[in-house]
Write a structure and sequence with these properties.
The chain has 245 residues and is mainly α. The protein has a single domain, classed as Serine Threonine Protein Phosphatase 5, Tetratricopeptide repeat (Alpha Horseshoe), CATH 1.25.40. Helices cover 57% and strands 2% of the residues. The chain is built from twelve helices and two strands, in the order βααβαααααααααα. Helix 9 packs antiparallel against helix 10. The longest helix has 17 residues. The N and C termini lie far apart (37 Å).
C-alpha cells in the first residue's frame, strides 16, 4: 500500500487531479498509510479532493467536504485561501453568484503559492461571469492567463475565456478557444472537465451580459472539456496588476 507524509499525499493527489484522474485521486487517501501528523497538508488534501469531486459533477459532495474545516484552517493562510477559493468556484457553478463573489473576496491572493495565482484570477472570472459581469470576467481571465506558470493553468485559461466568449454570443471565438484548449499540450484529460463548465456555458446554459440565457448552438464547443475549480453588495474585486511571489 502507498504511504508517506501527508505532504507527499497532497502532492500525489494534486498531480492526479492535474491529469484528470479524479477517481484515482479520491481513492488514494483511502489506501494511503500516513506517516506523522501534518494539519496543514491534511487540510490541503481535503481541499484538493473537493476539486476531484466537483470535476466528477458532484458539487454537493465537494461543498460538504469543505464544511467544518475553517477552525483548523484559521492557522494556515494557504488553507484559508484555498477554502474560500474552492467555495467561490462551487458557488459560481451552482447558481449562487453573490455567494461566489463573497468567498472570492475572502481568498487572499498572496496567501497562495505564486504558481496558483492564475487559478485565483480564474475563480474571479467564473464568479463575475455568474454575476453577469462579462467585462470583469474577461479582465480576470486574461490576467490569469498572463501570469499562468503551470501547463494546466494555461489550458484552463483557454476554456474559461471560451465560456466568456460564449456568454457574449461570440461563437467563433468561443469555438476557437475551446479547440485550442482541446489541443493544449497539458497531459491527460482536461482538468476543467466539469468545473469550468465550458460544455454547459457554451451551450444552452450560458448567461449573457444581461443575465439571460444564450441559445443552444450544436457544435464542437459543446463537446469541449470544462473545469470546475473563483459578487453583489460590493464592487467587483479588481484583477491585480502585479503578482508578487
Amino acid at each position: 500500500m502507498p504511504g508517506g507524509t501527508l505532504a507527499r499525499l497532497n502532492t500525489a493527489v494534486d498531480g492526479l487531479i492535474a491529469m484528470g484522474r479524479y477517481r484515482e485521486a479520491l481513492q488514494l487517501p483511502r489506501d494511503w498509510v500516513p506517516k506523522g501528523a501534518d494539519t496543514e497538508s491534511g487540510l490541503l488534501v481535503q481541499i484538493n479532493l473537493a476539486e476531484a469531486e466537483y470535476n466528477l459533477g458532484d458539487w454537493g459532495a465537494a461543498w460538504e467536504r469543505l464544511r467544518g474545516l475553517d477552525p483548523l484552517a484559521a492557522a494556515f493562510p494557504i488553507a484559508r485561501a484555498g477554502l474560500s477559493q474552492q467555495r467561490a468556484w462551487i458557488a459560481a457553478h451552482t447558481d449562487r453568484a453573490e455567494e461566489a463573489l463573497h468567498h472570492w473576496h475572502r481568498a487572499e491572493l498572496h496567501d497562495l503559492p505564486r504558481r496558483y495565482h492564475a487559478e485565483h484570477c480564474f475563480t474571479g472570472a467564473v464568479a463575475l461571469l455568474a454575476a453577469g459581469d462579462l467585462e470583469g470576467a474577461l479582465c480576470c481571465a486574461s490576467r490569469g492567463t498572463g501570469v499562468a506558470m503551470r501547463t494546466s493553468s494555461g489550458r484552463n485559461g483557454l476554456f474559461i475565456q471560451a465560456r466568456i466568449a460564449a456568454a457574449a454570443g461570440d461563437w467563433p471565438r468561443a469555438e476557437s478557444l475551446c479547440h485550442a484548449g482541446a489541443l493544449h499540450p497539458c497531459a491527460g484529460r482536461a482538468r476543467m472537465a466539469s468545473s469550468c463548465g465550458a460544455t454547459r456555458s457554451c451551450g444552452s446554459a450560458a448567461p449573457t451580459r444581461h443575465g439571460a440565457r444564450s441559445r443552444s448552438r450544436p457544435s464542437a464547443i459543446r463537446r469541449a472539456p470544462a473545469r470546475g475549480p473563483r459578487v453583489s453588495g460590493s464592487p467587483p474585486r479588481p484583477c491585480p496588476d502585479t503578482l508578487a511571489a
